[in-house]
Design brief:
Layout lengths: L13 E2 L6 E2 L1 H18 L8 E5 L4 H17 L4 E8 L6 H15 L3 E5 H5 L3 H8 L4 H20 L3 E3 L4 H14 L2 H6 L4 E2 L7 E2 L7 H11 L15 H15 L3 H11 L12 E2 L6 E2 L5 H10 L11 H21 L5 H15 L19 E2 L2 E2 L7 H4 L2
Parallel strand pairs: 3-4, 3-6, 4-5, 6-8
Antiparallel strand pairs: 1-2, 7-8, 9-10, 11-12
Helix pairs in contact: 2-9, 7-10, 7-11, 13-14
Amino acid sequence: MPIKCNLCEAGAILKRPKTGDALCKNCFYFAFEEEVHKTITDANLFVRGETVAIGASGGKDSTVLAYVLKALNQRYDYGVNLVLLSVDEGITGYRDDSLETVKRNQQQYDLPLKIVSYEELYGWTMDAIVKQIGLKNNCTFCGVFRRQALDRGAILMKVDRIVTGHNADDIAETVIMNVLRGDIGRLQRCTAITTGTEGALPRSKPFKYTYEKEIVMYAYFKKLDYFSTECIYSPNAYRGFARAYIKDLEKIRPSAIIDIIHSGESLSVKKAVKLPTQGTCERCGYISSNPLCKACILLEGLNRGLPRLGIGKSHKERRKLNEMLAQKEEAGNEKTTPDNSTETTENASSEKSATGSPKQKCENCSCGQKCLSEKVEDLQLDRRKIDPTLIDF
């Protein structure tokens, strides 16, 4: 006997993973969109007249988010201006293909599009970074750089807010990851629907309570154009293990995803526990709880041939860095003595091998190395020297 829709008595075609309700196609669309609308209105995510940038990757989450937000903006008259913002990480065979999907979405949804790249912002692509660091910790670089790239692209577009396609599964995974790492600071704020209010731009998650499976079903039945290939550098990512754990829990108890989110929301930290104080990076001005932000530390490591400088326990990399600085200081002293020209040449060649990169003429100074000096609006990156705060890292 055919199963009927729980809402309209028509023939049901699916069972909602989130609630278990049997629904027809139209009722599923309605329920999905209304739940997103309720999330937006309950949290007061939008202010009339704002320009809102949708973080668009071409994947299912961002594609459905763009489609639904445009529909809800017209239906309920939010009064916001929607634009698409994409980041090109420089991953051949993955991001270049997904950006083609984003460009098609721009035409399909008639929304402005801005693309910023790692190469223009940082002087590195993910392909080049993976050659340096390998496949074990590459996601650390991508996650840190991507977050900053979105903010910098949004500043260029002069938007008021960024929205991303992070869904309920993503947030539950983040809660588990922070519990396993004992990261109290992030655990306290990872379930917030809006973050970054203390920085340049707030960032919101309209899909906070939306299951990933339902996003896939919505995209499938709506026949939306999205890119479904997984990143070629992500198989060994730590998040992948948390994702597998969440999926196993969901099989046993479908409400586990929402339950984990509610648990994260209910967690409180004792007043005696000292949490990181948010400030700004001394070098680039980006929000950071340390004198130098993570991106500046990672970039300095890459530019100095020490890609693991900002990853995990970095005491070995600090020792290498101090040795390099000592060699440079010694070489500088020898240059002042005319008889030591041969030794100076040898030290210069050893310095070249230590950094792992050939000498290139610098356009900004006379240091003889390739410096990165990129300015995005009023955000200045100056990587021409290592300052004491980096040495102490």
